[in-house]
């Protein structure tokens, strides 16, 4: 029977702390950039111009229908060859995960906007508002309440997706865990600790997302 020993992990606490910091910071960056990209793509999907809708749809389907791991590897190895611009692991990871998340945020935003009754837009036009003013002052504030829970869920998924950046040598929690496992020869304890660390970060966010969904259902 295997004899568990977690005491040695204390000697590697600084690597764990550094990895958690990188994971949280990286998640914050890709969520912000992803929402910005998603907002642009989502509004393009609602445009009356077919070219804009086609470009947005092509981007969304490309990133939703290809594996994130493939996207990361392509950004890190292929994009520098094609563009002539050298990318670090952090830069490639930021680009890939932001674009990947943006494709999902775009669909959430589009769905939130079209869920608002058309009468809201008609009322805005009757008051002499421009389409941009209607979207900014009338539609988006109402849609944001409906978009918040699924966007939080997608952000939780983005946090879990950051574990893939370890393959391109970004020193996140999993990458630091791999270093510790190779140094200590105790992978079971190391990866169990990593799983518990992710659980400690993600569980409160999951509870918050469920609470938001219930509040939304009650209000509707």
UniProtKB/TrEMBL annotation:
Q: Name one GO biological process term.
A: amino acid transport
Top-rank taxon of the source lineage equals: Bacteria
Q: Which UniProt keywords apply?
A: Amino-acid transport, Cell membrane, Membrane, Transmembrane, Transmembrane helix, Transport
This protein's GO cellular component annotations are: ATP-binding cassette (ABC) transporter complex
The way it spans or sits in the membrane comes to: Multi-pass membrane protein
The ABC transmembrane type-1 domain extends over: 20-209
Q: What is its main location?
A: membrane
Q: Which InterPro entries match?
A: AA_ABC_transptr_permease_3TM, ArtM/GltK/GlnP/TcyL/YhdX-like, MetI-like
Membrane-spanning residues = 20-46, 58-79, 85-106, 190-209
Subcellular location(s) of the protein: Cell inner membrane; Cell membrane
**GO MF terms held by the record:** transmembrane transporter activity
Job of this protein: Part of the binding-protein-dependent transport system for glutamine; probably responsible for the translocation of the substrate across the membrane.
- What quaternary structure, including any partners, is listed in this protein's UniProt entry? The complex is composed of two ATP-binding proteins (GltL), two transmembrane proteins (GltJ and GltK) and a solute-binding protein (GltI).
| Family of the protein in this entry | Belongs to the binding-protein-dependent transport system permease family. HisMQ subfamily.
Task: State the protein's name.
Answer: Glutamate/aspartate import permease protein GltK
């Amino acid at each position: 029977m295997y004899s568990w020993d977690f005491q040695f992990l204390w000697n590697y606490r600084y690597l764990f702390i550094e990895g958690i910091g990188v994971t949280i910071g990286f998640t914050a960056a890709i969520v912000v950039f992803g929402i910005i990209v998603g907002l642009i793509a989502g509004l393009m999907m609602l445009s009356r111009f077919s070219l804009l809708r086609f470009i947005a749809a092509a981007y969304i389907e490309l990133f939703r229908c290809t594996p994130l791991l493939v996207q990361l590897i392509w950004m890190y190895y292929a994009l520098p060859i094609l563009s002539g611009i050298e990318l670090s692991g952090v830069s490639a990871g930021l680009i890939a995960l932001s674009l990947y998340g943006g494709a999902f945020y775009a669909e959430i935003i589009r769905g939130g906007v079209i869920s608002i009754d058309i009468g809201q837009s008609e009322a805005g036009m009757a008051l002499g508002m421009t389409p941009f003013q209607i979207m900014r002052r009338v539609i988006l504030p109402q849609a944001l309440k409906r978009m918040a829970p699924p966007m939080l869920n997608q952000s939780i998924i983005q946090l879990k997706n950051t574990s893939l950046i370890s393959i391109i040598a970004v020193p996140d929690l999993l990458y630091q865990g791999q270093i510790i496992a190779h140094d200590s020869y105790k992978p079971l304890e190391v990866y169990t600790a990593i799983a518990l660390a992710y659980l400690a970060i993600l569980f409160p966010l999951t509870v918050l997302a469920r609470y938001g969904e219930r509040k939304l259902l009650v209000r509707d």
